Amino acid sequence: MAGSTGFVGFRTLRYLLEHGYRVRAAVRSDAKAELVRSNSALKEATKDNLSFVVIPDFTAPTAYDGGILDDVTYIVHVASPIPDLSNPDTTNLEARFVQPAVAVTTNLLEAARSAKQVKRIVITSSVAGIVPSFILLGQTTDQIFGPHDRGEELPAPYHEHVMLAYATSKVAALVRAEAWVKKENPPFDLVHIFPTYVLGRDPLVPSVAAFAQGSNAALLNGILGHHAPAPVNGAVVHIDDVGLAHVRALDPKVPGNRGFILNAEAADEKFQWDHGIELVAKFFPEAVNNGDLVNNGTTPTGPARLDSSETRSVLGIELKGFEVMVKETVGWYLEVLERERKGEKA
């Protein structure tokens, strides 16, 4: 498994262990391995079911040399560059997102073929890879997008549009992987997971300041009093459902060479980000009254018409609703805030 040090990857790792898999987690350093190993939420791990291997550079053609994939039956690949909108550096977004996403995916496919015994690779993609770019920029359409749609691979430069570079990285990695499988006909198949905005408890978050990054920020920004300058696509999914989808996708009964959209709520079903403000006032009145949650920001909701019916029918997952996401995400934020005030580690 690659990506266990991230929000989605860590939850997926825990589900893999819980479901009886023995996991070899690929990380970039020993420090990253210790970050995972020492986390108090990782209750499922033992010395027999979890080990680590260090791969300093996943983009290197030799990344998986040295028998790293020996005796590996399944690969779960969650690692990929994600957009940090707080990073002001928008120079060479192609090198920051697109090139590494393609290189990492291509290296993995080639290494899995050489390993010979790999049966399936599950890759975390994104709905950004299957919708047109104008959707990400807040424009509307009546079209409903499904797991077989593909976005555009936009050429560089991206003119400071970090999300367009990120989306292009997802499209490029996705279409390259599918084309490679079609051409090479390897002994394994692929399953792509297409999450929307992933919300929920993140045990790896080190501080309150870290909540400004990642998908939880889309919910928390308005609750913390910020006003989003542009619409945010109205599509969300609970972190537990994302982790579980990766595990369910390993089941041999699930057909390969396909993808699954993870979207619990959508704008065409009257979902609004600012409904979170109402839910916070309902479930966390004390934190609102004492000022811990300003709860007066705004997040305009953009279009998100997505068909996730196959996720329910094939993977058998009934996706958790927005109310649960708000309660768990905001509750976790307040817990980290309280620990910081007491001088404790998150």
Could you give a quick summary of the protein structure above?
With 346 residues, the protein is of the alpha/beta class.
Which SSEs are present, and which pair or pack?
Blueprint: H1 7-18, E1 23-27, H2 30-37, E2 50-54, E3 74-77, H3 93-115, E4 120-124, H4 133-136, H5 162-184, E5 189-195, E6 197-199, H6 216-223, E7 232-233, E8 235-238, H7 239-248, E9 258-262, E10 265-266, H8 275-283, H9 285-289, E11 301-302, H10 309-315, H11 322-341
Parallel strand pairs: 1-2, 3-4, 4-5, 5-9, 6-8, 7-11
Antiparallel strand pairs: 8-10
In what order do the strands lie side by side in the largest sheet? 3-4-5-9
Q: Which stretches are poorly predicted, pLDDT < 50 over at least 5 residues?
A: none
- Globally, the shape reads globular
Summing up helix and strand content along with how strands pair, one would put the structural category as alpha/beta
Could you explain how this protein is built, in words?
By secondary structure, the protein is α/β, with parallel strands linked by helices. The chain contains eleven helices and eleven strands. The chain has a four-stranded parallel sheet, with helices on both faces. It has a three-stranded mixed sheet with strand order 6-8-10. A two-stranded parallel ribbon has the order 1-2. α8 (275-283) crosses α11 (322-341). It starts with 6 loop residues before the first helix and ends in a 5-residue tail after the last helix.
